[in-house]
């Protein structure tokens, strides 16, 4: 059954209790919920399903699922820091570490995790755990980003290209140093197959980001959230300030990171 004693908590770089966490989760929801919901609809999730939302963050996906499975279904939303997940009937919120804490076997019709496993060094073992807690034939949806999938467009001048490229490279170093794999989106489908999931169906999505878009909002928010770590990773305060100004410029346009959404099923 569900436990609450984390033996070890991974060195997750962001902090749901930090000054920038509300912005972070708002931008994530604006940016990714449309794609996440489109893919979740493909599972046929409906009244009566029992769902698990792993690392629910701000809770937008957990809330959406709770509405879909009402009135007789249920959603368990977990997080190591679950304080931002809203409460509503049919939605159970648990402080829970997906690496270490127990879960009931063969219990869930649908499990969703977005931008969680890439942060966990033991992500392959977590995938195997998720397979065992799916009911036979149940659905697993993993949504992840590959932040290194970025090609500078010629419309960006050399200074902007250099600044933005340096920021993305420093962010990649920060995440990698904490055991995250910021490229994992592109490997997730392979790892899901190797964990014994079947009918693995990946899609990949990119768009253009400009000032005022949730993607750029997230990048600016993350540059504040992780400022100390970015300084340790070689950025300077003045270059961070400059890159924020560049991203807020009305002329700024960049291809987004690649977003990977992988649907799969537990073996029957
Ligand atoms: C980048 S946020 C993504 C939040 C949400 N899934 C979304 O996409 O909007 C990662 C979330 O995973 C949670 N998390 C990190 N490590 C975790 C772990 N070991 N077990 C459960 N949740 C974890 C964090 O607290 C955070 O809320």
TrEMBL record:
SUPFAM superfamilies: S-adenosyl-L-methionine-dependent methyltransferases (SSF53335)
Keywords attached to this entry: Ubiquinone
InterPro entries noted in UniProt: Methyltransf_12 (IPR013217), SAM-dependent_MTases_sf (IPR029063)
Organism: Streptosporangium lutulentum
Pfam family, one: Methyltransf_12
UniProt domain Methyltransferase type: residue ranges: 52-140
Keyword Ribonucleoprotein: no
The UniProt record lists the keyword NAD: no
The protein's name in its UniProt record: Ubiquinone/menaquinone biosynthesis C-methylase UbiE
């Amino acid at each position: 059954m569900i436990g609450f004693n984390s033996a070890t908590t991974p060195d997750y770089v962001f902090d749901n209790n930090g000054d920038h966490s509300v912005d972070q989760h708002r931008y994530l929801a604006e940016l990714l919920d449309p794609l996440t919901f489109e893919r979740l609809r493909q599972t046929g999730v409906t009244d009566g399903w029992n769902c698990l939302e792993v690392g629910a963050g701000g809770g937008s996906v957990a809330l959406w699922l709770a509405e879909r499975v009402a009135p007789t279904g249920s959603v368990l939303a977990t997080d190591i820091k679950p304080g931002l997940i809203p409460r509503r009937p049919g939605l159970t919120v648990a402080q829970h570490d997906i690496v270490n804490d127990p879960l009931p076997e063969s219990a869930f019709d649908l499990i969703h995790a977005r931008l969680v496993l890439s942060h966990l060094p033991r992500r392959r073992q977590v995938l195997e755990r998720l397979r065992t807690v799916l009911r036979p034939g149940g659905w697993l949806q993993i949504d992840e980003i590959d932040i290194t999938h970025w090609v500078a467009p010629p419309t960006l001048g050399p200074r902007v290209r250099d600044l933005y490229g340096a920021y993305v490279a420093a962010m990649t170093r920060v995440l990698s140093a904490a055991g995250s794999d910021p490229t994992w989106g592109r490997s997730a489908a392979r790892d899901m197959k190797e964990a014994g999931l079947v009918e693995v169906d990946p899609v990949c999505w990119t768009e253009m980001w400009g000032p005022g878009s949730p993607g750029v909002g997230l990048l600016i928010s993350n540059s504040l959230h992780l400022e100390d770590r970015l300084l340790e990773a070689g950025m300077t305060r003045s270059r961070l300030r400059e890159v924020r100004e560049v991203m807020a410029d009305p002329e700024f346009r960049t291809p987004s990171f690649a977003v990977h959404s992988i649907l799969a099923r537990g073996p029957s």
